[in-house]
Design brief:
Length: 577
């Protein structure tokens, strides 16, 4: 933002003094007169020890502060704490080399929060110490992106840096992307320094990584196979990892299993590249061409969609991608159950006690692939419904089976959850699971994919079909679902479109429900139709609203809409963080 007068006017003294207090404090307890601050630029740092983003940003600010002061820059920082107690304040402030508003002055801290409209932390406001003008209230972003290069943190300086960044992109080389004035190399996972000049004339993938993040780990495991294949066929391709880890131990843990190169952990270029390539999602793989120019800001989606086959689309030009798409269509058209479930010697699924069941025994059957996990609350709630439907279908159709594909983290959880399932499973530590998740783009669980007797995919959202129609949804084809939908439409003929009911103050409207819902009258689950108040999110079964059972209306005690358990769960689905 442009420099603007500080709310209330006055210099830094008028801003920081409060009542009889005319001083700030150091973490040693020393009092420092506000009038004695000689810095030209003063930053107010709104932060708290309980805030994870603050704890991540504070080391960056400390580093910038120490560098600026060592260079003799006229700069100071004042910590304005958002901690709840003095013990937490003292422990957090002990790590900071700058000044702070005394924790005891809660009124003064509150006034600063209000004065600078602090709606979230960390928040860093740079001020002209003499005039009190706000130079920028985007200090966190500027320090994160530019470090000390942003000094003195004026709008003019930031615009200058952005112009330099634009010029750098226009004249981009592999050296300007990966190197610095003091470093002209990247490293291997053995610590060997590899000159950046060795990458000239190659396609280079810039891969942003972070240890312990499942989507990145799954992506890099596939990328490693593609990397090996491209090396095998002689393509000039290299990958350079850009670590977002905050500590060297985490970096080393993830990098040790990667066959490619990396920018050294903690190098400032890592954070600069986040801004330079406008990183907004993980995984991200930027593709740089042999001339050093950016060919694509992210080809991770291509690899995610095609898996190992993506190597055939290298270097991912429009023509190559068209060929890749055609091959994918042909592959889908020739899909069989064996092509889905058999990989090398892995030609079986397992029953109870780990007994191996050949995939060949499932050929010719309708098979549901059940993606689920014990840690997922909605999965646990949905399981009784699925077991009930499974048993009902099996009573009439022997040519039906379910295969459990687990996202559990350990064997104990897998065994415990699988023990309540009357069907088959793919073993927990089985490489086929990742391929199936990628093939069917599984973004949340529980999820059901229906494979027909000919091995072709007939329904990628069989969970919804099953939840609404129960066992009648078998064999889950479009034709069967359309047939059931027509019956449901016929069911409502003769029912009033609107009505008033004693359980709710507003008029209720008859609506078609595509997913199960909870009745606010009898508190049971229902589907197909409800009388609904959109304003209040209120629903009644038709039997509750009309005061009688309606022929064909299904009311089920399904639990898949139960309150989720687990931090990654929302509604009736658990998604990856």
């Amino acid at each position: 933002m442009a420099a603007s007068p500080t709310p209330g006017g006055g210099g830094i003294g008028a801003i920081l003094a409060a009542g009889d207090r005319d001083y700030l404090v150091r973490n040693s307890g020393e009092q420092v007169k506000i009038s004695g601050i000689e810095a030209d630029t003063v930053a107010l740092y709104f932060s708290a020890s309980w805030c994870p983003p603050c704890r991540r940003f504070t080391p960056k600010l400390i580093e910038a502060y120490k560098e600026l002061t060592s260079l003799g820059k006229s700069f100071e920082v004042v910590f304005v704490s958002g901690d709840q107690d003095e013990e937490a304040f003292n422990a957090y402030f002990a790590k900071m080399p700058w000044l702070a508003v005394p924790f005891s002055d809660s009124e003064g801290r509150k006034n600063l929060d209000e004065r600078f409209e602090v709606n979230g932390i960390p928040h860093l406001v740079f001020l002209d110490a003499k005039t009190g003008e706000v130079l920028t209230d985007e200090g966190v972003e500027f320090v994160s992106e530019y470090g000390i290069e942003a000094y003195p943190f004026t709008t003019e300086r930031i615009n200058e840096l952005k112009e330099q960044e634009k010029a750098a992109k226009d004249n981009q080389t592999i050296h300007s992307v990966l190197g610095t004035a003091n470093r002209a190399y990247v490293i291997s996972n053995t610590g060997k320094k590899v000159p950046i000049v060795d990458l000239e004339g190659k396609y280079v993938g810039i891969c942003f990584v972070v240890n312990g993040y499942p989507p990145v780990e799954e992506f890099t495991s596939v990328l490693a196979k593609i990397y090996a294949k491209l090396k095998e066929v002689g393509e000039k391709f290299e990958v350079v990892a850009v670590s977002l880890d905050s500590d060297e131990e985490s970096f080393n843990t993830s990098f040790s299993s990667m066959p490619w190169l990396a920018i050294p952990q903690g190098d400032k270029m890592c954070q600069k590249l986040v801004s330079y390539f406008e990183l907004s999602d993980l995984p991200t793989l930027v593709l740089i061409g042999p001339d050093g120019k950016t060919l694509s800001s992210n080809i991770a989606g291509i690899i995610d969609e095609h898996g190992l086959d993506a190597w055939e689309g290298f270097p991912f030009s429009a023509e190559k991608l068209e060929i890749l798409a055609e091959k994918a269509k042909a592959k889908a058209a020739s899909q069989t159950l064996e092509s889905l479930l058999v990989t090398g010697d892995l030609d079986f699924v397992i029953g109870k006690d780990g007994a191996k069941v050949p995939v060949a025994e499932l050929v010719g059957k309708t098979v549901l692939l059940y993606f689920s996990a014990k840690w997922c609350g909605p999965c646990r709630a949905f399981l009784p419904t699925l077991v009930d439907v499974y048993n009902k279908i099996k009573e009439k159709n022997s040519d039906f089976e379910i295969v459990f594909i687990s996202s559990d983290k350990d064997q104990s959880s897998f065994d415990d959850f699988f023990s309540g399932m009357p069907w088959l499973a793919i073993p927990l530590e089985d490489e086929r699971k990742a391929d199936l998740k990628k093939r069917f783009k599984i973004r949340g669980i529980p999820s059901l994919v229906a494979i027909g007797p000919d091995g072709k995919t007939v329904n990628t959202d069989a969970k919804t079909s099953l939840a609404v129609h129960g066992a009648d949804a078998f064999p889950f084809t479009d034709e069967r679902i359309e047939e059931l939908e027509k019956k449901i439409d016929e069911m409502a003929k003769g029912w009033p479109e609107k009505l008033k009911h004693e359980l709710h103050e507003h008029e209720l409207v008859l609506v078609r429900r595509r997913r199960p819902y909870g009745c606010d009258g009898c508190e049971e689950m229902g589907n197909s139709w409800s009388y609904n108040c959109a304003e209040c999110d209120f629903d009644l079964h038709t039997k509750c609203a009309l005061g009688e059972e309606k022929k064909g209306e299904e009311v089920k005690g399904q639990e898949d809409a139960a309150a989720p358990a687990g931090y990654v769960c929302e509604g009736d689905v658990c998604r990856k963080a």
